[in-house]
Every structure is written in C-alpha cells, then in structure tokens.
Automatic annotation (TrEMBL):
Role summary: Removal of H(2)O(2), oxidation of toxic reductants, biosynthesis and degradation of lignin, suberization, auxin catabolism, response to environmental stresses such as wounding, pathogen attack and oxidative stress. These functions might be dependent on each isozyme/isoform in each plant tissue.
PROSITE patterns per the UniProt record, alphabetical: PEROXIDASE_1, PEROXIDASE_2, PEROXIDASE_4
TM helices/strands, residue ranges: 12-29
Protein name as it appears in the record: peroxidase
Keywords assigned: Calcium, Disulfide bond, Heme, Iron, Membrane, Metal-binding, Oxidoreductase, Peroxidase, Transmembrane, Transmembrane helix
Record-level GO BP terms: response to oxidative stress
Cofactor binding comment, as recorded: Binds 2 calcium ions per subunit. Binds 1 heme b (iron(II)-protoporphyrin IX) group per subunit.
GO molecular function: heme binding; lactoperoxidase activity; metal ion binding
Lineage of producing organism: Eukaryota, Viridiplantae, Streptophyta, Embryophyta, Tracheophyta
Family label: Belongs to the peroxidase family. Ascorbate peroxidase subfamily.
Annotated ranges, domain Plant heme peroxidase family profile: 59-235
Length: 237
C-alpha cells in the first residue's frame, strides 16, 4: 500500500478548508493510495475539529454546505475533465449522481443568463425551460450587466435541503443550468435522472458511493502532491 506523507497543522483557522481532506482520509482506505489512520498520532482530534468547524460555518452561512461540496468536487477533478459526460476514473452513473449536489446552493445569473434571453445566440430563450420558471428567472436576472452577480437557487423546490428534488426539477424542465437540463439529452443519463427523481433512497446511496469513488480520482502521493496550508496557493509560495 502506498502511503501519502503529508503534514497538516492542527489549527482551527484552517481546519474548515480540510473538510475535503477528512472525507478522503476516512473513506479511501483500501484504495491503495491513502492511509486511513495517518492522523491518529499527529492530530487525533481532527474529525472532531472538522465536524465542529463545518457545523459552525454552516450555522453562520447556510450557503457554506454547497460551497464545501463544490470545493470537494472541483478539487478532485480540477485536471480530470474530458468528454461531455466523462471524468477519468468515473463512469456516467457517477457523473449523473454527483450532479445531484445542485440540490443545494445558488448560481450567479451570469452563469445561465443566455438561456433566458439569447440561447445559443438565437435571440430568444431556451425552449426546453419551463415557462413559469423562465418568467421568474427573467425577473430575478434582467437582461443587463448589473444583474450578473444576482443569485438564483439551483433548486427552487428545496434550496437548503439535500434531497432528490434536483432530478424532479430536471424531469419537469426546471434545471437551472444548461448542463443540468442537458442530462436528458443522453438516453442513459436520462434514465438515471428518472430513477433518482422517483427514488430518494437510491439517490442518497448512490451519491455517497460516488463521493467516495471521487475521492480516489487522480490522487497525488508524495512527492507529487501536498496538502496546502492555504487553499489558494501551493506551500512554497
């Protein structure tokens, strides 16, 4: 088994950023990459520290839960994106179920505004979007630059609840992002969307399994990888 030799400062200031790290360490044992018990001696209270700080961060800002999910996802696949529905190390099922993370959080108007007013440079809205949702979004995100930073919920049905309503929205043409609604363009992905929309327990189980699998994608072991003291820069800067 290859052990990754990293060092984390057991510091409350930076611990919330290591929520991703904890998830990887706790669930990647046996994958031939990480050591489940690596921090037993150097930072035995790590799980408690992370749990407390994540809870506190979410209590102070409910959007933090979605932010941590995005951080985890993009950190794991930052250099791994390939074709339309393909991520190296993950199959189509995993990518579809991970999209369900959009059941919480918000998106800036700039990320989907073209769907509202100039879909594919057509000068009109996306015909695949539910008409009532379209009208509401056009009010929230008027067609001017000053609205670019306005926020809209990724999931209108349950913005702050992690459930399978994201898939119900997609089935009903209420996916906020074009990438969400595009899941129905692929027959295999569409079948999965329908399954998850009808079975919240199936979604929950598959999401947990896919998150664990995602944690093993493209892991960099020493000396090629490092745990950053500050998330925005490598340690030697």
């Amino acid at each position: 088994m290859t052990t990754t030799y990293h060092k984390v400062h057991c510091n409350f200031t930076f611990i919330p950023l290591y929520f991703v790290l904890l998830f990887v360490l706790m669930f990647s044992f046996g994958q031939g990459q990480l050591d489940y018990r690596f921090y037993d001696q150097s930072c035995p209270r790590l799980p408690m520290i992370v749990r407390f700080n994540v809870w506190q961060a979410i209590r102070n800002d409910t959007r933090m839960a979605a932010s941590l999910l995005r951080l985890y996802f993009h950190d794991c696949i930052v250099d791994e994106m390939t074709a339309k529905f393909t991520v190296k190390g993950l199959d189509l099922k995993d990518v579809v179920v991970l999209s369900g993370a959009h059941t919480i959080g918000f998106a800036q108007c700039s990320t989907f505004k073209k769907r509202l007013f100039d879909f594919k440079d057509s000068g009109s809205s996306d015909p695949s979007m539910d008409s009532l949702m379209l009208s509401n979004l056009q009010n929230m995100c008027p067609n001017k630059d000053t609205s670019n930073t306005n926020l809209a919920p990724l999931d209108y049905s349950s913005t702050f609840r992690f459930d399978n309503s994201y898939y119900v929205n997609v089935v009903n043409k209420r996916g906020l992002l074009q990438s969400d609604q595009a899941l129905l363009d692929d027959p295999i992905a569409a079948a999965l969307v329908n399954s998850y929309s009808n079975d919240p327990y199936l979604f929950s189980n598959d999401f947990a399994a896919s998150m664990i699998k995602l944690s093993t994608v493209g892991i960099l072991t020493a000396p090629y990888g490092e745990i950053r003291k500050k998330c925005g820069s490598i340690n030697n800067i």
